[in-house]
Design brief:
four-stranded antiparallel sheet; 6 helices; 9 strands
């Protein structure tokens, strides 16, 4: 590429950096945001605009309202390029997102990055192809006239975009909800019994004391009268459930908090119990 395509070369470099970055196993989110913003909001539309239109380097209009000049292959001003670039970039990103959402590959970080990269590179190559016949008519640099209201509108758009990004991903965390997680899963069974794994994890603000009870077909199986967990601490235990029925066993676990008289959490599971027909057969749950 000749020097006049330095902007297109920069577009390709940013695209390649995005593709390489998305393949890394560890990706700090601030760097990812800085790389993703131009790929989503600027580069596809910029490359497409460069392929469709010719930049005008000599705007002589002094009027506040410029005459419409948006014709394919015809010169357009810097403001028109910026507006078209932003609008087309967002349109391309939305269309790519909808397309990936209905495809088997799905809408993921890698698929979205690779799709936008391929589209941007295609647009960039098309823009370079359009410029191949340029014999230096753009070497003359002239001062571009931009009206005051265009500066104001462009500044407002930057402020709105910055506020949207801050509200979406960079804002400070809001009020956190505190709770306790309680679960029960099937576990490795013994020869004559079934088993379940019961677990508790404290997401409360302070250390909390719990009481846990387990029943099988309303028959008490085990009780933990005092389980104290610090914030983020986890407790789990494998409980052997005797086969009290030849058909099904309804296992229920209840969680109580020390500062509350009622049941705080409850989980249940139905195990299909039986044997293979032989006295020494392993229990089936």
């Amino acid at each position: 590429m000749r020097l006049k395509n330095i902007d297109l070369m920069a577009v390709i470099v940013v695209v390649v950096v995005n593709v390489v970055y998305i393949q890394l196993p560890y990706r700090p989110w601030p760097i990812g945001v800085m790389l993703a913003l131009p790929l989503i909001f600027a580069l596809p539309g910029y490359a497409l605009t460069q392929a469709l239109f010719v930049r005008s380097l000599s705007e002589t209009e002094d009027t506040l309202i410029l005459q419409p000049r948006l014709k394919l292959g015809q010169p357009v001003g810097v403001v028109d390029h910026i507006t078209l670039g932003l609008g087309l970039s967002m349109a391309v990103a939305v269309l790519v997102g909808f397309t990936l959402n209905v495809l088997p590959v799905g809408l993921q970080a890698q698929s979205w990055t690779l799709s936008l990269a391929i589209i941007t590179i295609v647009f960039t190559l098309a823009a370079a192809f359009r410029r191949r016949g340029d014999q230096g008519q753009h070497e003359r640099i002239t001062k571009t006239r931009i009206a005051l209201y265009e500066y104001i509108l462009f500044g407002l758009s930057i402020v709105i975009a910055a506020i949207a990004i801050f509200a979406a991903i960079i804002r400070p965390p809001g009020t956190q909800n505190f709770y306790t997680q309680f679960w029960m899963l099937p576990a490795q069974q013994t020869t004559t019994s079934c088993a379940v794994r019961v677990g508790v994890q404290n997401f409360e603000q302070t250390s909390t004391n719990y009481r846990i009870t387990i029943t099988a077909n309303e028959v008490p199986v085990n009780t933990w009268s005092s389980v104290t967990l610090a914030p983020k601490e986890e407790w789990d235990h494998v409980v052997t459930v005797p086969i009290v029925s030849t058909k099904s066993i309804y296992v229920e676990a209840k969680l109580y908090k020390a500062d509350s008289s009622g049941i705080y959490r409850t989980v249940h599971m139905t195990l299909n119990a039986g044997s293979g027909g032989s006295k020494d057969a392993k229990a089936q749950c």
